Amino acid sequence: MAEQKKGQDVDVNQLLKVRREKLQDLQERGKDPFQITKYDVTHHSMEIKDNFDTLEGQTVTIAGRMMFKRVMGKASFCNVQDLQGSIQSYVARDNIGEESYADFKKYDVGDILGITGEVFKTKTGEISIHASEVTLLSKSLQVLPEKFHGLTDTDTRYRQRYVDLIMNPEVKDTFIKRSKIISSIRRYLDGQGFMEVETPMLVSNAGGAAARPFETHFNALNEDLKLRISLELYLKRLIVGGMERVYEIGRVFRNEGLDTRHNPEFTLMELYQAYTDYHGMMDLTENLYRHVAKEVTGSEILTYGEHTMDLSKPFARITMVDAVKQYANVDFNEIHSTEEAKKVADEHHIEYEERHEKGDILNLFFEEYVEEHLIQPTFIMDHPVEISPLTKKKPENPDYVERFEFFMNGWEMANAYSELNDPIDQRERFEAQEKAFAAGDDEANHTDEDFLNALSIGMPPTGGIGFGIDRMVMMMTNSPAIRDVLLFPTMKSLDK
């Protein structure tokens, strides 16, 4: 095996040497492709195929990467791949000239070509371009993966996404669909009167979520700063300022682990709407998901792995207490103290920390017994106050808050509140979070005095929600891992 690998390396090195020699020959003959600065393209591959009836016999100009070449004496075929797909070209010496044809025969798979010629259909019925001119636009000095095996190693695919996009058309389709999903979200929210805004990524206090932040140092001010873990606190400041409907789609950063659903930097969308509550956010979520699914996938039925999810029906709505009662057969309405909750947790082998209170333990039961069952679109409502430091309490039951998490396929897809706008209550919640941090919870929120000042000026009743865009894209493209929907996911350095 080692000898075979060594032989492969020698072969590749020889191929790379030959490619550089070809480039040098072109340069010496005044045909350096890297000197070309512009090339006028008139059509793309799929556009030509879709409009063959009107384009047959017409002259077109395309450009793309040559993925296949077959030389047959005085005539050859090649396939050029562009943004939309690939198209065949028939290249004959008598049409492009002897010198150009001699050059063409030396071009390599991976080279980027421009081709001008007439649209026609071959005897086998394949729509093609009869080349009258072939231009080398860029010389590929590296060897692409072998065609029939492609690029299959996932680690290499993520590290060299540029090669992945070339060799695996379905990957490009995923990222085109990702772009369409984000555009569809924007169109829907803009149509609902929301305004898109941008807020700081470098912050002194990374609040709005339970997560460990990345820390950095700003030399100019000699201050330590953090990368934001959420968009929440600045967007709420804008609600205070009178911007009644705002949203932001942006990167957030959480200093946590990597797995199929987590990347330390990911795309979050948060929106806030004055004069509504978490029920208004449920309605918005249903309508938004249906709109995006229908516009991007053409259906309100989504298939992910072995599961099929129906967005056309009203989404289920159930409280966290009732969900735990249904799936764990434990009724937290009958549990009145933290001691009782810990006793029940012990009986069900639920691990907890000493600092955990009744509400924390309810959430642990939910994670253990309920989440995996939430395949169809479901709103889990009314979380315990202990795990919701920025949310309004339920007036009739202050141990719980007006919050929901939206689940599909057993995943949390969104998190929403009736936002806490009482500055006195908010300060008490921050103080409780500071105590939790002191007790060992390094994901607890810290007191944000400027945010408290904003609330003191007055924030109207407000509904807010955060969507994980990457998980939404995973769901709508049937992608197994978050890295499959991030163009350049976080990878461990090869130097380590």
Automatic annotation (TrEMBL):
InterPro entries xrefs: Aa-tRNA-synt_II, aa-tRNA-synth_II, aa-tRNA-synth_II/BPL/LPL, Lys-tRNA-ligase_II, Lys-tRNA-ligase_II_N, Lys-tRNA-synth_II_C, NA-bd_OB-fold, NA-bd_OB_tRNA
Binding site for Mg(2+) 2: 412
Binding site for Mg(2+) 1: 405, 412
The EC number(s) this enzyme carries: 6.1.1.6
UniProt remark on cofactor binding: Binds 3 Mg(2+) ions per subunit.
Listed GO biological process terms: lysyl-tRNA aminoacylation
Cofactor names: Mg(2+)
A molecular function GO annotation: lysine-tRNA ligase activity
Pfam families, A to Z: tRNA-synt_2, tRNA_anti-codon
Assigned keywords, A-Z: Aminoacyl-tRNA synthetase, ATP-binding, Cytoplasm, Ligase, Magnesium, Metal-binding, Nucleotide-binding, Protein biosynthesis
Listed transmembrane segments: none
Annotated catalysed reactions: tRNA(Lys) + L-lysine + ATP = L-lysyl-tRNA(Lys) + AMP + diphosphate
Chief localisation class: cytoplasm
Gene3D superfamilies recorded: Bira Bifunctional Protein, Domain 2, Nucleic acid-binding proteins
Domain Aminoacyl-transfer RNA synthetases class-II family profile: 178-489
GO cellular component, as recorded: cytosol
Localization in the cell: Cytoplasm
UniProt subunit comment: Homodimer.
PANTHER family in UniProt: LYSINE--TRNA LIGASE, CHLOROPLASTIC_MITOCHONDRIAL, LYSYL-TRNA SYNTHETASE
Family: Belongs to the class-II aminoacyl-tRNA synthetase family.
Protein name per UniProt: Lysine--tRNA ligase
Organism: Eubacterium ramulus
Lineage: Bacteria, Bacillati, Bacillota, Clostridia, Eubacteriales
Gene: lysS
